[in-house]
Amino acid sequence: SSQSESLSDVEDHKPSFSRTSNSQKAEGKDASHETSSTFSMYNNVSQKLMAKMGFRVGEGLGKYGQGRREIVEASTQRGRRGLGLTLKGFQGDLNVDWQDEPE
To answer: Region Disordered: which residues (predicted)?
Structure first.
């Protein structure tokens, strides 16, 4: 009986793969609409690819949903200095107007 209890404990932690019911399909359509409106800056192919791999808005990535929930922002670091270093004067965009005329 102790073996059956330990097996049931293990089965509780495993993800299950089952067919979706009609109610779950309807919820999925709402979620995909929410995803497409929220992440409209991404093209349709990348949205379908992420959905195919199990991405859901607001849930963590990873096998059990334990991972990162927010988007990883691109680094704005310039040069070869250490990550996270901020220098005064380098915060904004560099809009340099180059003149092609010789001096």
So the answer is: 1-39
- CA–chain centroid gap for 37, Å, is 15
pTM of the predicted model, to two decimals?
0.31
Report the alpha-carbon distance of residue 5 to residue 24 in Å, rounded.
Answer: 31
Across residues 32-50, what is the average pLDDT? 69
Domain extents for the chain? 21-58
Tokens read off for 65: 């949903």
Q: Which of 87, 88, 83, 59 is nearest to 73 (CA)?
A: 83
At 79-94, the pLDDT tens digits run 777 777 776 766 556 6
Residue 89 is classified by DSSP as: T
Cβ-based neighbour number of residue 46 at 10 Å: 10
The helix (H) or strand (E) run that includes residue 27 is helix 22-38
Find out whether 54 and 62 touch, Cβ atoms under 8 Å: no
